[in-house]
Every structure is written in C-alpha cells, then in structure tokens.
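Ticket #4471: structure output looks truncated?

Reporter: J.K.
Steps to reproduce: submitted the chain below (474 residues) through the standard prediction queue, then opened the result file.
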Amino acid sequence: MNSPHGSRLRLALGTLAAALVLAGCATAPPPVDTAALQPVPAAFKEAPPGRWTVAPPADAQPRGPWWAVFGDPVLDDLLQRAAERNTSLQVAAARWAQARALQQQAQAERRPTLDVAAGVSRQTQPQLANQPATLGSLAAQLNWELDLSGRLGQAAAAATLEAQAQAALLESTRLAVQAAVAQSYLGLRALEAERAIVADTVEAYRGTLRLTERRLAAGDVGELDLERVRSELAATEADALALERQRRLLEHALAQLLGEPASAFALAAGNGLDALQLPAVPAGVPATVLARRPDVASAQRRLLASQARVGVAQAAWFPNLALTTAAGTASPDLGDLLRWSSRAWGLGALLSLPVFDGGRREAAVAQARADFDAAAAGYREQVLLAVREVEDELASLQLLQSQAAAQSRAVAAAARATVLSGARYRNGMIGQLELLDAQRSELRNRRQAVQLQGAQAQATVGLIRALGGGWDRS
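Returned output as attached by the reporter:
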C-alpha cells in the first residue's frame, strides 16, 4: 500500500515533469537577418571611383579627434568644451545610465534572493486560555525562480540590447554635437570672411562717394551720378548689417552647443577660412562605411531587443516554478530565541500555470509583435537615411568643387573688369553707372566664392558625420 507521503511526492514530481515538458516547448523567435531586412549597398552612386565594401557593426570603434584635419586650435578648444558641458550629451549619458540600471535589474531577476527578518509579536493563544504571550522569531528566507521557459533570460537579453542601443545613441549624440559645433564654427568663419569683403566694398564706395561729390562741385558729373553712388553705398551697408546679424545669431547658437550662456560667450580669433585644411575624400573608403554609424547600430539593437521581448511575451504562457526555503528560530521566550531547540525550517516549491486570463497574455504577445514590426521599419528607415546622407554629402562635395573652380574664374574676370572700368571711368570713356555695375559684379562674385568655400567645409563635416566619424582605414 502506498503511503500518503509517497503519493504526494509522486504527484509533485509528476507536476514538475509536466512543467519541464511544457517549458521545453518554449522556443525563442528565430534570429533576425538584418542584411536581408534592409541590404546596405556595396557601392555609393556619388562616390569617387574605388572599392566600397560592407562590414559588420563597428560603432564602438574609436574615432579619435576627426576635426583635427582642419588644423584649427580654436575649433579644437570649442569641441573640448562641448564634450564637457553640452546638455544634449548630458541627457544622453543619463539615459544610458538608466538603461544600464534596468539591465542590472533584469539580470538580478535570474538570481536567488536572500532575506533576513526578525520580529516580536504579542498575542493570545487558545492553548494558554487566551492569555497574552510574546512570540519572537529570527529567520532567513531564500527564494529562487527557476527560468524553465527562458522568460527571465530573454528579458535580460532584451535589457542588455537596450543598454547597448542607448550607448550607441550616446555616441550618435556625441557625433551630432561635434558636427554641429564644427559646422557652426565654420559657418561663422565664412560669415566673417564675407563680412570683410563687404566692409572693404563699403570703404571703396565711400571713397567713390567722396570723389563724386568733388566732381559734382566741379561740374564734371550730374546729381544723378551722386545719388547712384549714395544708393549703392547704403545698400552695401545694409548687407553688412545683415551679415553681422547672421554672425551674431550663429554665435549664440554655438554658445548653446557649448552649454554656455550666449551673453558671456565670445569667439576667439582663429584661422581664417583660407587657412583651413580641407581633407580630400579618398577614392576607396574601407569596410567601415556605415558600420561605424552609431544610430544605425542603435536601431539594429533595438530591433533585436524587441525580438527578445516577443519571446518574453510568448513565455508567459508557460509555467513558472519558484523554490522557497526558510530557516531560523522561533520561541515564546526571547531568552530561548537563539537556542538550538528553537530552530525551525521550511522548504517549498510553487508551480503556477496560466489557465484563463481574459486575453491578457494574447494581447501582450500581439503588442510585442507590433513593437517588433515598428522596430524593423525603424531600422530600415535608419539605414536608408544613412545611405541618403552619404550620397547627399558626396554629391555636394563633388559639385561644390566644380562650382568653386568656376566661381574662381568668375572672380578673376570680375576683378579685371573692375580695374578696366575704373581706368576708363577716370579717362571719361564710361559713366558712373558702368563703373558701379563692374564693382557690384566683383562684390557678388567674391561673396559667392566665400560662400562656396564655407559650403565645402560644412559639407566635409557632413560627410564625416554621415560616415560615422571619418574614413580612416582600419
């Protein structure tokens, strides 16, 4: 005859075996093939001739001070200050710290917990004729949930991927801030060069105005010539003020990027635009083209994290098994609390299997799958955006280089035309209007040349950012 104790033991073992069989049916979703999800081109349409290849993620690869290629110590100092004080970087760093804390919390769920408790209670007991008695207890309890379905493991994996994604976002923010500081600084230098040209033109027009006033007094020219010069001078002075306004606004934006108040910020004198050393894009860029972009890596890891959360939601259908053990002492006499005879212990197991929940688990699985679909679309969008940004900057640099060469020829021709027009005007061969037209043409061409030079510098920074921080060969 079987004893009741043996029957209970067999029942417990049978239940545990059934739970293990059910848990064995819980399988994680198949791995995501991100290359098939959104293929990365092996070559860029706008790239110079050469070999472009695809590489595995390398967003953790050190980039170094890529801005050093410009050879400007003022820019070096600005980027150092931005790294220390930029508020966007501080927010991204705090979110990374939050993600790491959640990762540690998810990993801790897989480990046993140990609690120690001590208590004293005053109560009545029927065996003592309801006389009040004091009961003291001292115990330690160990709890451990066996991860039969892999739910806790997948949750920890998802939290780890989220932490890695947040770390990549921090790097993406750092790269974006560096590029914004560099582009703002280069834009400021371009505006200063343009302002210098306009200031020289203003002085030239003032000299022309004084000369015209003397010639009007001598009766050599009419009042119409004088008013034309005055109009041109006033319009050029207005241009100078507009450039100063743009420069100040850009300076304020640069101060914000550095985490400093605009009222206390002043840009130090540095190299002019002509002294900048613009790096040339190599003909063959190595395999770290888009693999170094931290935003693409972040989107990929968020996709993998959402896939792991699908597994977590699916594992909620399978049983959970928790083991509990406790040991300690209990005594109605506090003096006997630490005696060996007052010892007490307990060992238990709790198996829970979902039967009916009103559709909650099914809804959780549907939500996790929808999140996965959104993450997959977000990853594809990020890859396409990265490819487009590289193509845009490559096209801009190629066309800006040709445009700058053509503009250089236009500046030389306009300057020669101004010299010839001035000589002919002094000899009385042309009127004031023709001379002003030549001067306006030279000013316009010089300003366009400076604008193109600044655009080339900013497009170079844009390409460095689009490639994830440079194109150094590994």
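Triage note (M.O.): checked the attachment and the full token line is present. The chain has two domains: 31-110+150-187+222-318+361-466, 114-146+319-352.
Status: closed, working as intended.
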